[in-house]
Amino acid sequence: MNAVVLVSGGGTNLQAIIDRIADGTIHNTKITAVISNNAGAGALMRAEKAGIPAEVVSPSDFEDREKFNMALLEKVESYAPDLVVLAGFLVNIPPAMVKRFAGRIINIHPSLIPSFCGKGFYGLRVHEAALKRGVKVTGATVHFVDEGTDTGPIILQKAVEVKDGDTPEVLQRRVMEEAEWKILPGAIDMIATGRISIGKA
Ligand code: GRF
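A: This is the predicted complex of the input protein with 5-O-phosphono-beta-D-ribofuranosylamine.
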């Protein structure tokens, strides 16, 4: 199964996928490209170190959002992916791309959807909101991407304990280590081994 991974940040989720493919936890999967909207994304270095083609499609290189959307779709299509993985990708997926890859785009979100998700809930903001609400348990979710934001069918979730004195940064790290870096590779392997059919969780 050919996977294209879209990234915006440090790439720790990408690294987890690379490592799980290397140790055989993820079966019959190849990352054919890593694409970022952010030329400075640390994830690009991780791709290069792993010998994976890494490309940037940056909104600032296009005169309007429509042109960026088209360029992103064309770039992803050029790698003919069976699966598109959003691993900390902070750009809204254009509707044309959701349609083109219907049921074949998955996303990792750092909360137990439907809590702390939707517009404006990304990165540290998710954990700030969880701490503000005072939840005792949070976690991460892998879901199929549909036209909405964090609204598609849920594939896997993993709970993580919130501890007294947690800061957003400490909680984010625990959610990444104990949940994100496990369930994103897990979901990819489920799809790669046919344990869930594309588009139906
Ligand atoms: C992190 O906030 C993570 O929780 C979310 O995306 C952000 C970047 O993760 N999934 P990564 O290190 O770039 O994978």
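The two ends are 18 Å apart (CA to CA). Residues 2-108+141-155+180-192 form a domain with the Rossmann fold fold (CATH 3.40.50.170).
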